[in-house]
Write a structure and sequence with these properties.
The structure holds 2 protein chains of 2 kinds.
Chain A lengths: L3 E12 L2 E12 L3 E5 L6 H8 L7 E6 L2 E2 L5 H7 L1 E4 L11 H13 L14 H10 L15 H13 L5 E5 L7 H17 L3 E5 L3 H7 L2 E6 L2 E6 L1 H4 L3 H8 L2
Parallel strand pairs in A: 3-8, 3-9, 6-7, 7-8
Antiparallel strand pairs in A: 1-2, 1-4, 4-5, 9-10
Helix pairs in contact in A: 3-5, 5-6
Chain B lengths: L5 H20 L4 H22 L8 H18 L4 H23 L4 H21 L1 H4 L5 E2 L12 H28 L1 H17 L5 H27 L1 E2 L6 H14 L5 H21 L3 H15 L3 H15 L1
Antiparallel strand pairs in B: 1-2
Classes of the chains: A alpha/beta, B mainly alpha.
């Protein structure tokens, strides 16, 4: 039933003396919310960088729906249906939230025109609905630099969702957000992913979030995957509890 | 915001009125106003690149190409027609712009600026050294062209050239403003603030910048043709780096946020030069230098930014 979306095989990369990936094998399945956990420096973000074309692995391969994407640049991988959201929101700060969103919509639909106003694009209603879905519609006309951090993160994710991806890779979607708001943001997020039928991979440090929102967990440790499985199983594993969760 | 604001309507009305009334009262200013409008067209191209945070210190290359397209046509093929010139010159500049653009859009900031400078200096050297074809530093005199096949006496021609330049300047500023408000224009701004994210939206930043570069080359060629017809000469100075600097200077003076800045800056620049050159000989550079320092320190969004601020505080009262 579960289609394999992204398939990583034998990924290796080292930065000087640090081995950030030492033979990573992992499949991302359709419909899942896969959490990636592990200590700082274990190579979690590096994995996202390699699967989206920002870094090229020194060995191994990445494929998406059976197509080899190892050597492709981010923009080509994005066009195939792999979108990414960032740990630190990556927005276009001089423009409004709606202008940010419409650029994403224009990129998706190929409306690379110089004759039509961005704000007159037909996707405007759709983008409003999407902003509504992630709960930041009230900020549509504000410039992105004016927004609080939590809202900026949501806009960052909305920008990726506007691309209508098959899979969304998120780097710590709730970091930098006040802990009282974390649950709210994750609720909004998982709801949006479900509605848009987007599978997801998210790097997370908060085990409560993982337990609650992940359908599968992969534990990273010094460039290797230590264990993969359902959260109930993985989070009870003695070694994981000792080294990652720190109990 | 995307629609024309009242301020813009007022500015456009002032520009049109000034272009028509000033030469009628002061015939000696006719060519000056033409030069302001023609240079404003070139500066529109600089403003496009500045949206992406890129400064070209070699844009005089396209200005020079436009000028010499006209000059060579006159020298080798006989005096042409103004309507022909304003097609040929931008086409030549656009073709060269596409070729040079493929190289320069791979670079950013200082490297982008310097690579443009290098290309422009190659053109300048060729114009200086290939004396046999270009008359070197003496330049090539450009005879008064016909307009739509009709020859006009100098006085009438001056006015016609002014009105044609005014019409072209209006069309160019509306087209550029529309472009800046379009997806491609917004993506130029995105190159400045977050190029990596733009790539993560599936957009080629190089392609977006290349399109902007080619448009700016087109505008440079058009402005160069108009200036050369107005001044009846093309010299290698047209492609020299100080000329490139002048265009950047005018853009910052006027304000880089929208198309109107190009013309406000060009008007200020040319009028100060015109008046000061007559009364203070070589002090005009000094005066413009001081003006630019004041603008950068107190009104970094340029003359148009000052006007906007004024209009906003009026509105609050």
């Amino acid at each position: 039933m579960s289609n394999v979306l992204i398939s990583a095989r034998g990924l290796k990369i080292r930065f000087g003396g640090v081995i950030a990936a030492d033979g990573i094998d992992l499949d991302v399945l359709e419909g899942e919310n896969l959490a990636i956990i592990g200590p700082n420096g274990a190579g979690k973000t590096t994995f996202l960088n390699m699967t989206t074309g920002y870094l090229r692995p020194q060995a191994g391969s990445v494929s998406f729906l059976g197509k080899d994407i190892t050597a492709l640049p981010p923009r080509t991988i994005t066009k195939l249906g792999v979108a990414r959201a960032f740990q630190i929101p990556q927005l276009f700060l001089e423009q409004t939230v709606m202008e940010n969103m419409l650029m994403s919509a224009a990129a998706r639909t190929g409306q690379m025109t110089g004759f039509r106003r961005l704000m007159d694009l037909p996707e405007r209603a759709e983008m409003e609905a999407l902003l509504d879905l992630v709960g930041v519609r009230a900020f549509a006309d504000r410039r992105t630099f004016e927004l609080p951090e939590g809202q900026r993160k949501l806009v960052d994710i909305a920008l990726a969702l506007a691309l209508k991806p098959r899979v969304l890779l998120m780097d710590e979607p709730t970091s930098g957000v006040a802990s009282a708001e974390k649950m709210g943001i994750m609720d909004i997020l998982t709801n949006a992913l479900k509605q848009q039928k987007v599978s997801s991979v998210f790097v997370e440090h908060d085990m409560e979030m993982v337990e609650r929102y992940a359908s599968r967990v992969a534990v990273w440790s010094s460039g290797k995957i230590q264990i993969v499985g359902p959260p109930s199983e993985v989070l009870q594993n003695a070694e994981v509890r000792a080294h990652v969760i720190g109990i | 915001m995307a629609r024309l604001s009242n301020l813009h309507r007022v500015l456009i009305a002032i520009a049109i009125a000034a272009s028509i009334i000033v030469p009628a009262l002061l015939p000696s200013w006719t060519t000056l106003v033409t030069l302001i409008l023609a240079k404003g067209i070139v500066v529109l191209g600089i403003i496009i690149l500045l949206q992406a945070g890129q400064v070209s210190f070699g844009h005089a290359m396209f200005f020079g190409l436009g000028a010499y397209s006209v000059a060579f046509w006159g020298k080798y093929l006989g005096t042409g027609d103004l309507l022909l010139y304003i097609v040929i010159a931008p086409v030549v500049a656009t073709l060269v712009g596409a070729l040079v653009g493929v190289f320069v859009v791979r670079y950013r900031e200082i490297f982008f600026g310097m690579l443009n400078l290098a290309f422009s200096m190659v053109l300048w050297s060729l114009l200086e050294k290939l004396y046999h074809f270009t008359n070197g530093a003496d330049g090539i005199r450009v005879a008064r062209p016909t307009i739509a096949g009709m020859a006009f006496p100098p006085e009438t021609f001056q006015y016609l050239l002014l009105y044609i330049t005014l019409a072209l300047a209006l069309v160019a500023s509306f087209a550029v403003q529309r472009y800046l408000d379009s997806p491609l224009g917004h993506m130029l701004k995105a190159i400045k603030t977050n190029e990596t994210r733009l790539e993560y939206l599936g957009v080629s930043a190089r392609k977006v910048l290349l399109i902007g570069y080619i448009i700016s080359a087109f505008l440079g060629g058009l402005g160069g043709a108009l200036v050369t017809v107005a001044q009846q000469i093309a010299t290698p100075e047209f492609a020299f780096w100080t000329k490139s600097g002048e265009f950047v200077f005018i853009a910052i003076l006027g304000g880089t946020a929208n198309a109107a800045g190009a013309f406000a800056g060009a008007a200020m620049f040319e009028i100060v030069r015109f008046l000061a050159a007559a009364k203070l000989a070589n002090a005009w550079q000094l005066i413009l230098g001081v003006v630019l320092i004041v603008i950068i320190m107190f009104a970094p969004s340029g003359l148009i930014g000052l006007l906007k601020r004024g209009a906003a505080s009026e509105g609050k009262r």
